[in-house]
């Protein structure tokens, strides 16, 4: 019997029908939406009348809205509920969609209409947001090949299509390689040192697979405790090597894909007249060029390095105190283990002591209480909403007057068919025009410690920070008031986009905020003062190593996209390993190939490629911005209102540097970040 039901991807409303979307819906829906968008663009490009803002820019933005939502939904499902059939369908349409988007700025009729609009009296009288949209669109068209000759345009379209295919395959290989690994341990005695919560989780993971014993995977809730606490060095080494060499063998080997992606990106940049991919990507970001980004990274590294050397000397000295002066240099799979032992000895602090105080339901309630105090908003759970997995929850964000600002989904635990990490996606951007305001729709995903042994999910403090971080991104989307969809929410420069997320992490370290939600899951007691003080004292423990790790990722990213010549016969894994070694205290083995699973850089056409430095750039902004809350009141409603109005609500309606100055009253300073990290030299 033929299914006569309408294709849900062609009828996407606000509450998305995640429970009805099937792999067989993808290709017919996307191809119909592609044809619809192509026809709409052709109508703009061939319109004979004099161009107006409404007939060109506004019309252009509407042409891709339905296609973009459908592809976002399908791409999301492929990342959280992947099946072979869905992956096949997604892979079939992705090159076509990528080629379509690549063709938009190459359309001569469209480019001529936009240039003609820019010369009209109407363009000269546009309000600031519309003028910014026009200027950014013209620059974006140039940066994407509008002024190339026909042969150049054809090659650029082919490059975009191939990049989409290769980066999608890279991402899928990481998911598959991560899911393929498991380490089964039969002997409970080999788990000495591992916290009871991690032992229970490993036992639950084995039971879920119909096995006895203890199952370890490369998902963070399994991997991190194993590397931090397992006394059995052989087990730690096996897990570390598997994690560090993910996607480097068999059907999931990403090593040739990394070189290919770099080659395609370099060719694309040169075709468009840029020296390298970093300059192409960063032209419209706060850093503006690869050289400026590298100077920023170099400056932070120089300030950090003396502290980094001292930390590593101290850790090796600590090991030799414990194991004797003949103890060998610390290996990569020993770093987290010995660092945790040193932290316990120095601060009498074990992060596992905090876990009972962070049951996920209470953390979520506390997060909502914090943003209520800061921004006057209220978050409530939505019931009976279609979702993609039973674990998923949905919520509404309401303004002080009760109006709906945003709805969102939360998918917070790992599954084998779900990619790792944590992220936020905007799904629907509601426009605010002529006094009317439409709500937004978004989602947050993570891979937090799941419930086990009859207990709620008990999070680490780092997982709490991650939840606050992703919710900060969501607030940027939810509290945006865009008149223009392309300038709304998180559609900002990538070295600014992490400011709203990273600033939220600060409240996870404040007693007044923690007391809103950090309660023991059995007794309801708040974190004891002595434990809180130890946590604060240990905050900057090995902060220089944490800084250098991130700077290493930033430097290897920039170096690969500026210095590395893909066709020169060099081994990109060895090239990257050499840079990372300079930022890593333990000797990396020749098999080390973490960039083969570095999705930030290689899982999409651009993503964080040449932009990983953005995390540290935005951390400078967040530390400085948060210092205003520290100065004027942690929950000061006036400061919260200012951050909401000057940063969150504005999206990309003005230059990010101007938005920061509006909130902070001055240019940002590195000192707040260095002080927070304990990396300012002591005077005298």
From TrEMBL:
Cofactor annotation comment: Binds 1 zinc ion.
Cofactor or coenzyme needed: Zn(2+)
One MF term in the entry's GO annotations: metalloendopeptidase activity
Domain (Peptidase M3A/M3B catalytic): residue spans on this chain: 227-678
Alphabetical UniProt keywords: Hydrolase, Metal-binding, Metalloprotease, Protease, Zinc
Spans traversing the lipid bilayer: none
Keyword Repressor: no
UniProt EC number: 3.4.24.70
GO cellular component: cytosol
Domain called Oligopeptidase A N-terminal: residue spans: 30-149
Reaction catalyzed: Hydrolysis of oligopeptides, with broad specificity. Gly or Ala commonly occur as P1 or P1' residues, but more distant residues are also important, as is shown by the fact that Z-Gly-Pro-Gly-|-Gly-Pro-Ala is cleaved, but not Z-(Gly)(5)
Protein name: oligopeptidase A
Upper taxonomic lineage: Bacteria, Pseudomonadati, Myxococcota, Myxococcia, Myxococcales
